[in-house]
Amino acid sequence: MNLNELRDKAYQCAVAHGWHEENLSDEHFLCLVISELMEAVEADRKGNHADTDAFNKYYNCVNFKENFERQIKGTVEEELADACIRLLDLAGLRSVDLGEVDLDELKCSEGFFNWSFTDAIFSLVCNITDTDYIETHSFDSFLRVDLVEILVFCVQKEIDIFWYIEQKMKYNELRPYKHGDKNY
How far apart are alpha carbons 26 and 146 in whole angstroms? Predict the structure, then answer.
């Protein structure tokens, strides 16, 4: 999977929807990634998971936006996709080369097999806030590691994260400028 293609698509959509009109800090964007991870925790607490069977069943019968909002919006899977999209967007803004990832390698990575959902999300948030890593490595490496760790978590939890990213990006393209009423 070429992450740079996803990066470019996420960034172009964010620009078109007004999210880069101000020069905001990396910390601002990373905080928004953390907020998506926290929304994933809330969705998990409520047992909100995507109904991909229903989504696929009605894919050609119902308006895409309406179908997405019924079957995927507000779910664990959507929020994890949002976290990835925010990292992809930041990588696009900062021209970070993310390279490629191999799904089989993600499945075999050490990681989150025996972790609870909240323990794993806490670990991901800790990594995103690890400023020591940024000081000892490049920002590019930091972003790639943060993104790949979320991908590893999803793959190991059998979440088809690339499919959810694709659907959420398609949904985001349909949204109004700044999603109608958001400041950031």
Answer: 13
**17: which DSSP letter?**
T
The C-alpha angle 147, 183, 38, rounded to 5 degrees, equals: 40
- The reported pTM is 0.94
- What is the rounded radius of gyration, in angstroms, for the C-alpha atoms of the chain? 16
Domain spans in the chain, listed from the N-terminal domain onward: 3-180
d(Cα 52, Cα 36) in Å, to the nearest integer? 20
Contacts 24+ apart (CB under 8 A), 119-124: 120/153, 120/157, 121/37, 121/38, 121/40, 121/41, 124/37, 124/149, 124/150, 124/153
What distance in Å separates the CA atoms of residue 150 and residue 1, rounded to the nearest whole number?
15
* CA atoms within 13 Å, Cβ hemisphere of 136: 4
Q: Which is more confidently placed, 33 or 61?
A: 33
**For 109-168, how does the pLDDT look when each residue is reduced to its tens digit (9 = 90+)?**
877 888 999 999 999 999 999 978 878 889 999 999 999 999 999 999 999 999 999 999
Query: How many CB atoms are located within 10 Å of the residue 60 CB?
Result: 8
